[in-house]
Amino acid sequence: MISLQSIEKSYHLSNQTVKVLNNINLALYPGELSYLLGESGCGKSTLLNILGGIDKADNGEYIFDGKNVTNFKEKDWAYFRRNKIGFVFQTFNLIPHLTALENIEMSMILDGFSKTDRRARALELLELVGLKDRASHLPNQLSGGQKQRVAIARSLANNPDIILADEPTGALDSENSEQIMKILKEVSQQGKIVLVVTHSQELLHFADKLIKMKDGTINEVKQITVKNDSPIQKEKMNSNKPKKLNWGTTVKLSLRNLKNKKWRNTLTAIGASIGILGIVLIGALGNGINEKIKNSLDLKTANSSIGVYKKGTELLSPKVAEEIKKVKDVKAVYTYNPFSISIESKNEKKETVSADTLVPPKYKKIYGNSYITNGRYPTKNHELVLPERTAQKLFGNNLKKAIGKKIKIVSQLMAMKGIYQTVQTEATVTGTVANSAIPITDSAGFSYPLAMEVTNENPETQNKALQYTVIPSSIDKVDSIINKLKTKGYIAETEEDSNKEISNYVTMASVAIGLLSAISLVVSSIMIGIVLYVSVLERTREIGTLKALGAFKSDIRRIFVTEGFMIGALGGIFGVIGSMILGKLANFIIKEGFNKPTLQLFQFEAYQLIIIIIFSGLLGVLASFIPAFRASKLNPVEALKYE
Question: How many structural domains comprise the chain?
């Protein structure tokens, strides 16, 4: 039984205190259908909310089956509502995106029933209220009377001890009202406490007890039928400990909610995808450039020589070369200078490109087997090789036609410090070399004698070098040579080290550009947060209903956090798909438009794409925190009244 003793309740509005309940003493017994009568505003709904544990009294005691539940904590009340209370609301409060069957299942899901058990129980209850054929209908496909019968079936799902019905016939016609009260009468006869709140004087013939209220007090209790004191045997229901909403149900509810506003959520995800698209494209471009750099020289040839120079691009004298030669395990030392060259062919076509100093022929393996793509390695003075791209522009697509052609060259030593005079000469093209990853880094190759001639014809650079190329006695000695040279104050690195440095620059540039894309990610996260905040407002009554059914705060939070993750992850998926389309299109244009079948500038890695989708989902989670916590803290009484 229920015993209320000296219950009082007041509401505080600004500086005014309004007393709603005053010294309420009431006993309710199993097997009785009680009517709580009174005019609007007399305190009926407030008393019902206190009985249902969705509101608290200021003073007094609430005794249920001999146990004082007055000072229950919020989680205790949630579990109490889940197992002991069944609510029937005037406005039904069915969750709009769930079917009739799923609405009934919800309280059983909260209580940890297996899918088989809860499905069987829900169908049994639908049959009890005469709606088994409407199991798969959504609330908007049901009439008012049908909705109320579903609400009654939902209130019975966990076989609670108490059924609290707030104006259950207020929105129904007389025929449906009669049917609803018949069902509630049958429920009370199963040994449950049934309390119906109403201000109507109709249908009183169903009542076993009439309780009349006026101005916050009970002024009359009339027993119509004799109370049956014999114990009533009840079906034993689920006795699990309090459980949180399982992840499967959380995901299902979140998906239904997202589907309910699919266009808004899709547009939000598309907005979130813009920043992701930029980041994925930058990453793919970095992958492509780094891969091209890495593949330009194999590991063995990349360590076949060591570049030695001074910080600040200082020109090195021959004495430095002599000092380097004395280092143990150094086999040979050669001058290396980079040049900027202007080329003019006999047909007066001109191109500008950079040029490297190649080592003598016996060390040409430093450049790898694929360095010369056509013709031969330049060995004599006035010989050079051209990048394929440059050769095609000067002599046409047939690269073999470039071999043997004489060209005019204007060369200038490239240095950060100072500008050196140019040197004019002629040279013969002996072959072509592979293009660089990007056109701006294409480089021709001067034969060693040609490079020395160009260097020495300029008095400022005569017998000097920006860098020396050191040939180690074996690859195994590379590290020891580098360490010794560093102790002498030189910068020493292999081609592999240089490539790593370039890769680092590419990575840093990608990060810098990525930071710009990150701004759009922040904006999209804020947008997701706003959408979810609006969703909380739209679903306030649904949140109140879930709390009335016994959902914990954490259950409500988890639903909205899951939705945030889904919107974010969907934005990540859209961004990844969009970037792949653009990247593949760019690769196709490079391949077909620029005739570069082997150049794939945009390369996508599966693990990177998966990480970025998860990252996007986590941004959605972050954006959902404020709306999720606001939703979880909603007062169920106020939430159920929200319009």
Answer: 3
Q: What distance in Å separates the CA atoms of residue 260 and residue 147, rounded to the nearest whole number?
A: 19
CB environment 83-105: b (16+ within 10 A), e (fewer):
bbbbbbbbbbbbbebbbbbbbbb
Is 254 within 8 Å of 566 (Cβ atoms)?
yes
Residue 554 lies in a domain: yes
132, 123 contact by CB (below 8 A):
yes
Domain boundary among 489, 515, 540: 489
Tokens describing residue 236: 């034993």
Handedness of CA 84, 88, 91, 97 (dihedral sign): positive
Is there a contact between 88 and 52 (Cβ–Cβ < 8 Å)? no
Same-domain pairing of 48 and 112: yes
For 513-538, letters b (16+ CB in 10 Å) and e give bbeebeebbeebbebbbebbbebbee
Are 200 and 68 in the same domain?
yes
Q: What is the DSSP letter of 316?
A: B
In a domain, 302, yes or no: no
> Same structural domain for residues 514 and 447?
no
3-class secondary structure per residue, 157-180: CCCCCEEEEECCCCCCCHHHHHHH
Residue 538 located in a structural domain: yes
Q: Are residues 152 and 207 in the same domain?
A: yes
Fill in the amino acid letter for 42.
C
CA distances (Å), origin 517, targets 205, 327, 524: 70, 49, 11
Same domain, 186 and 280: no
Sheet strands (E) in 282-338: 306-309, 330-336
Do the domain assignments include residue 252? no
CATH code for the domain of 91: 3.40.50.300
Does residue 121 share a domain with residue 51? yes
Q: What percent of the chain has pLDDT over 90?
A: 35
Q: Residues of the chain with pLDDT > 70: what percent?
A: 87
- Side chain identity, residue 459: P
Q: What is the extent of the structural domain holding 327?
A: 311-489
Instruction: Give the tens place of pLDDT for each residue, 103-119.
Output: 999 888 887 788 898 89
For 641, the enclosing helix (H) or strand (E) is: helix 636-641
Among 426, 460, 489, give the residue marking a domain's end. 489
Short-list 45, 58, 62, CA closest to 19: 58
Closest CA to 122 of 516, 22, 610, 114: 114
* DSSP H stretches of helix in 171-223: 174-188
Contact in structure between 303 and 475 (CB atoms under 8 Å): yes
| 263 vs 268: CA distance, rounded Å | 8
Residues 6+ apart with CB under 8 A from 519: 275
Residue 233 and residue 288 in one domain: no
pTM of the full predicted structure?
0.66
Q: Give me 474's structure tokens.
A: 């074996």
Both 285 and 333 in one domain: the answer is no
Distance, CA of 334 to CA of 360 (rounded, Å): 9
Whether 22 and 217 have beta carbons less than 8 Å apart is answered as: yes
Please give the full DSSP string across 466-493, using - where no structure is assigned: SEEEEEESSGGGHHHHHHHHHHTT-EEE
What digits encode the pLDDT tens for the residues 476-497? 888 888 889 889 888 888 766 5
- Alpha carbons 544 and 537: distance in angstroms, whole number: 11
Q: Averaged over 589-607, what is the pLDDT?
A: 70
The Cβ of residue 546 has, within 10 Å, a number of other Cβ atoms equal to: 27
